[in-house]
Amino acid sequence: MNGHAVESGSHLTQAGIEAAKTMAHEESAIKELDASELKITRATAPRVVPEVNSKEVFDMKTCTDHMVKVTWTRDEGWHAPEIEQYGPLTMMPIASCLHYATQCFEGMKVYRGYDGKLRLFRPDKNCARLNMSSARVALPQFDPVELGKLMKKFLGIDGPKWLPKSRPGTFLYLRPAIIGNGSEIGVTAPAEVLLFMVAVLWPDFSAPRPGTKPAPPGLKLLASKNDTRAWPGGFGYAKVGANYGPAFVAHMEGRKLGYDQILWLLGPEHHVTEAGASNFFVVWKTKQGALQLVTAPLEGKIILEGVTRGSVLELARERLIEGSKYLTPEVGSIEIVERQYTMPEIVEASKEGRLVEAFVAGTAYFITPVSAINFKDEEIEIPMGDDGSSGHYAALIKKWLRDIMYGNVDHKWGVVIDEE
């Protein structure tokens, strides 16, 4: 198995390749994932496409007409992939995923560009990360390039109907997942696995839900107190379901108190890790006056290596430098820092007037500014720019990424899909 992926120098790609080498069976005995064997059965009961940001979209329950399914078995390896009508899965009550959390997934989007084209954003990263997550929960490996081919074929079929050219600037949420679905209760790696992929209508969270008033700009975060999302030596770096269910308790409690997400802290020093299911960034000035964009490091495998996170850092390091054509009167050059930092540091920066802005980065919330953080029952207000809608750095980085996703600029990260 070769575990192909582009940009071989990245953490995600290398992690996927190394995991594949470690976990793969002998090639002569086990079949690799092969997109060329794809079988397509067209839906006989096509579904209705709701209006943009309608109630159906905000419910996040409506999927497109088709789904991808690929079975893996211990004796044969990967079977022929299939695209078939969207519908329920069947499994036995003693399926491994139901008892032992042998399950992982990805979250990504497909975009209808303003140039009429359909695009994915850096899909190689998501495919490689799914491969890595699969290894972490004793599930089989695959060639990420082949998964990318299946993804493009699937979206080439459903994309034209569900993201019509008449709706530029819209997107679908794509959910590839792998589950241990074999009929076995033993505490061991599953002998049968299902890889599947669905596309879900997803709302633009910056727009109000139908029938409600627009929310104030910016997210309000509640810093965690006794709960911990991830820890050194754990699996916080993998996108597995076991990271999410236990976090829902704190999330729902925060919602009752009027907060949008939990800002996850770690240890007695209150190290800042993630915000909800997003990576967290802060812009501040050091005591010496240096302007910094700071986020938690990947070392320690505590946070998820977000694709949006990595893209923010790459663009910032390329464009937010002295002499860059991308700088504006409001946005100057800035030092990019990945390090452990604490909530008390944010409190101190706020009290001393050095806190500039903060934002979250991820697939679900994209780039969203943070307006407040509640830490130890005291609310810290985060500056939100001149007009109170967003900090300048968050707004500019969001624009750069949107331009790539929706084809306003030609960029290697925007992968065009051939439509049927």
Number of strands: 19
Q: Give the number of domains.
A: 2
CATH fold category name of the largest domain: D-amino Acid Aminotransferase, Chain A, domain 1
What's the CATH class label of the largest domain?
Alpha Beta
What would you give as the CATH superfamily of the largest domain? Aminotransferase class 4, branched-chain amino acid transferase, N-terminal domain
Helix/strand/pairing category: alpha+beta
Ranges where pLDDT stays below 50 over 5 or more residues in a row are 1-9, 24-28
Using only C-alpha atoms, the radius of gyration works out to: 22 Å
How far is it from the N-terminal to the C-terminal residue, by CA? Answer: 31 Å
| Architecture per CATH nomenclature, i.e. the level-2 architecture of the largest domain | 2-Layer Sandwich
Averaging pLDDT over every residue, what do you get? 93
> Strand-and-helix sequence, N→C?
HEHEEEHEEEHHEEEHEEEEHEHEEEHE
Strand content: 25-35%
Can you summarize the main beta sheet?
Answer: 10 strands, mixed
Helix content: 10-25%
Number of helices: 9
Indicate the overall shape: globular
Identify the notable features of this structure and list them briefly.
420 residues; alpha+beta; D-amino Acid Aminotransferase, Chain A, domain 1; D-amino Acid Aminotransferase, Chain A, domain 2; ten-stranded mixed β-sheet; six-stranded mixed β-barrel; 24% helix; globular; disordered N terminus; B_amino_transII; EC 2.6.1.42; branched-chain amino acid biosynthesis; amino-acid biosynthesis; BCAT-like_C
